[in-house]
User: Fold these one by one.
Assistant:
Number 1:
Amino acid sequence: MIARYTRPEMGRIWSEDNRYQAWLEVELAASETLAELGLVPREAAQALRAHAAVSAARIAEIEAVVRHDVIAFTTCVAEHMERAGAAEHSRWFHYGLTSNDVVDTAQALLIAQASAAISAALDRLLDTLKRRAFEFRDTVCIGRTHGIHAEPYTFGLKLALFFDEIRRNKVRFGYVSDEIRVGKLSGAVGTFGHITPDAEAQVCQRLGLRPAAIASQVISRDLHANYCSTLALIAAACEKIALEIRHLQRTEVREAEEPFAPGQKGSSAMPHKRNPVTCEQICGLARLVRSNVQAAFENIALWHERDISHSSVERVILPDSTILVDYLIAKTDWLVSGMVVSPERMQANLDLTRGLVFSGQLLLDLTEAGMLREKAYQLVQAHAMHCWSHGNDFRAAVEGDTEISKHLSLEQLASSFSSERQLQNVPAIFARVFESSK
C-alpha cells in the first residue's frame, strides 16, 4: 500500500533487511558490553561481531514454521555462525535478553534514522519558503477573512506565516525525536533480572541511545504517541499550504497555481483543465497521517507489563507515518518552489471591489478627525453597502459626501485608500520572523 509513496531512503529504512540489521546491532552491542563486564566470553563477542549475519528471506522461511519473528531471527544468526565454523559461540547470542529488549531498542534506531531524513527535508522546505517569501514580500494582494475580501496583504506574508509554522514544527520534531531515542534491556517485566542497569546504560550508549528510566517489557507508548502527534502536525502544516494554493488556483481567483508540466493533462474529458492535483494529494494524505495518531494513542494502554496489541499496529503506523510525512514535505517543497504566481491577477482582485477594502482605514481616519465612531461606522457602512450592491466606486462615493469632506480633505482621503500605508510594517514583520530564525 505504501510502496508507491516511498522515497528511496525512507523505503530502505523501513525495509525488512534494515530492520533485522538493527536487531543485529542491538544484539552485538549487548554481547560486546557483556563481554567487557565479564559476563560473556570475549572470544564469543568477537566471533559474533565477525560472523553473525541475517537474511530477511531466510528469517521469513523460519518464521513460517516457528511463528515467532525473534526466534526466527536468532535461528538465522545461529545458522550463519555454524556455516562460519563458529557454532560454539552462537550460544552467547541473545544472552540475558528477552525478545522485546531487542525489538523496542532496535525500533528506536529505525525511528532515529527516519527522523534524520525528515529533519533534513524540513530544512529544505524552510529554505524554499524563506526564498519565496522574500521574493514576494512586497507583492500586494487581497487578504481574505471568511473567504471574503478584507484588507490589503502581501503574498510574501502568506509564505512567511507558513515558514514560521514549519519552523515551530521543526523544533517540536527535534524534541520528540530526541525524546524517543531510548532503549531498554531490562528483561521480561523490566526488573533487570538478568542484566544490570549499568549494562543496559552501556549498551544504549554504544547504540547512541539513552536508557529508559523505567520500562515494563516495553518502553511506554506515550513516547510513540507524542512522536506520531508531531508527525501529524507537520502533515497538517503541509496541508495548510496546499489548501491555500488550491483556493488561489480556483478559476475565479487565479492568483497562484501549482506547476503544470509540458504534456500534462488535467482531465480526460475537458482539455482546458489545469487541476491542483498535487495540492489535493497533500490534503488527502495528511488525513491518513492524522488517523494514525488515534491508533498510537490506543497503544498506550496495554495489559499489565506487556501485551502485543500495539506491535502489529506499529508495524503499520510508524513506517506509514514517517514515509508519508517525508513524502508530504518533499511534495510541498516541490509545490512552493515551482508555484506560479500572478501579481497582475492579485492586483485585479484587489481592485475588484473598487476600494471597499479600505473602509476600515477610512473609519479610523474619520474617528481621528473628530467624528464619533458610531456615526463614522454608520456613514462608511452605508456607502459600502450601496457600492457593494450596485458596483459603484467606493472612493468616488465617499469623496462626494459632504459630511466626510468636512473632516477629511482629498489629500487625507488619498491616504485612507493607500495600500502602502497599510503595509508599511511588512518589513518589520519579516524581521521578526526571519531574524529570529538565524
Note: Residues 1-5 have pLDDT under 50 and may be disordered.
Number 2:
Amino acid sequence: MFRVIETFSGIGSQAKALENINADFEIVKTVEWDINAIIAYCLIHKNKIDTDKYREFSDDEISEKLNKFTLSSDGKKAMNKQSFRRVPADVKRMLYAAIEQTNNMVSITDINGNDIPGNIDLLTYSFPCQDLSLCGCWHGNKSGIARDAHNRSGMLWEVERILKEMFVQNRRLPRFLLMENVTNILSKPHELDFNDWKSTLENMGYINKIYRLNAKNFGIPQKRERAYMISILCEHDKKIENRIMNYFNEHNLEKEEAERLRRRKLSLSDILRLNYKNPIYKEEADASKPNNTPSRQKIWEDNDKLVDEKGNINEIFVNTVTTKQDRNPNSGVIVYKNYKHNKTKFRYLTPRECFMLMGFDEADFQKIIDNNPKMTKVRRMYSNEKLIKLAGNSIVVDVLEALFKQIIKINHEIFGAD
C-alpha cells in the first residue's frame, strides 16, 4: 500500500492520478483550507458528503467544531468571524463532514511534525504560485518565495518547518516528496531561494530531480508547462543515489519517456462541448458569453480562435487554463452564434471544459454540479468563476500519472517495496 499525504490538495488531482494508474494507494491525510476546494474534493473522490453521521450534533456544535480550524473562503486569506457566520448551517455541516471524510488537516500553518504519520511514502506539495508567477511580476509583486516575504508562495517554508520538526525528532520522513509550481520558480530572480530549499532537502538526506513538463506532451490538449521536483530520501547512501539518477537519465520525462508513459491522447474535439442541442451544454455556453465591452473586444482580437463560425476547431492546443477565463490573455475564445443583446459573438471555455482540460473526467465535474449547495436563496456555492478557479488552481492529472509511475517504479525496484 502506497501511503500518501496531499498538502495544498485542492480538488485532488494527485488522488485522481493514482486512481487512474490503478495504484494500490491510500490518501492518509489531505491539507486544504479553501472551503470550496474541500467540499469539491469530497464530492469528486468520495462521491457524496455523508452528513448523516453528524445528525446528533446541533448547528452550534458544528460551528464550534469548525471554529478550531483556520478556513478560507477564497484560498487567499483566512475567513473572519463575520464571513463564517454568513455560511448557511447546512453548508457548514457539509463542510465539517467533508473535512472528516477526507482526513483533512485544513491549514498547513496549524500542522506540526507530530501530526504527520511516520510511515508515509509520498508527500505532495503544490504551494500557491501567485507570488512566483509572471502575472504577479507584471503587477509589481516580485517577492517570490523569499523567507521573509510572508506571502502566499512563502507557504513553501511551512513544508520545510514540518519536515525539519520530523527530522530533529528522528522521525521517519516521507520517502518521496513531489513539488509542483510555475516554471518561474526556476528563474534567476528566485534562484537563491530555490537553491536554499533544495539544500535544506539535501541536508535531510534527499536527492532532487527537477522536470519542466508540458501537459501537451502527456495527452492533454493544453499548453501548460510547470516545474516538478521529485525528492527521494536516500539518507546520503551514494549507491542508492547513483541508481536513482541513472534511472532518471534513462527514463527522462522531458524526452520520449513522456509518450511512453502517457495513458491516453485527447484532442480538443474530445473536450470542447459544441453540441448545443444538449440543453446542459447550451446553458453552460450561454453563461460563458461575456458582456460586449471594449476590453472584451480586445480579448477577441488578441486570443486564439479555438472554434470558427463554421464550427471548425482551428487549434490543436489551448493556452494555459488559469484561474480566470475573463482575462487577457486567456486560453482561447470560441465563436458562439447564440447572439444576445449586449453580449459578445464569442464565448470562453466553460468550467466543464476547463475541468476536462486539467485531466478530470466529465463525471467528476458533474458530481459538483449535482450537489452545488445553496449559499442564499438565489446564489449557489459554485459559480462559473469559482469552478474555473478550482480547475486553474489544480494540476494536470495526466502529467501526475507519469510522475507517479516513475515514483512507484523506483520505490519497487530500488527500495524493494511491494
Note: The chain has two domains: 2-264+396-413, 268-392.
